[in-house]
Task: structure prediction
Amino acid sequence: MGRTRIKICGVRDEETAWAAADAGADAIGLVFVRSSPRYIDPEAAAALMMGLPPFLSTVALFMNPSLEHFCDAEETCPTTYVQFHGNEDEALVRRCGPGLIKAVRFDKDTIADDLARWDGVDEVDAILVDGGAGGEGVAFEWNRLAELVDNLSKPIVLAGGLTPDNVAEAIRVVRPYAVDVSSGVEKERGVKDPALVEAFCRAVLGA
Result:
């Protein structure tokens, strides 16, 4: 399947972005959700993007945005990809894609239906599976997800409770296209630790 890609989510400053890039990350996440401790204003995010190294992708994270809010933010800060991390309906997803990553929350009773639903939407480029609402560090049953991914046409991004200590095992079990981490590389809520970012990336690349 090739190398597992790495996204460091909740980046709010250029120093952290460069630490992620230097450690081997493929993408950084910019959280456009005001209630999040990792929120960054789209204008500040656009300024941050001006100083990024080449070939580092950017992902704007939204949660249940209105179409107007989405369009305004994307006009101010046009990112490589968009991530919808709420209960967005298919109509909104279709209008805001392609280049869209749709997140679903793992529930053993509904995960198969959720994956099948978004796997059938052309505007969705990848499906992210999280253990919680995002940035909560909630892990889940990787084995159950592993049973389902081979039947999907979309790449799977694994998130939720990942850390430098467990991400290699998660990759071994699920074999995802990419992994996404936020709280697992923080020294305090909303503040990334460059040493943990480096350790996380090293563990993924080693796996």
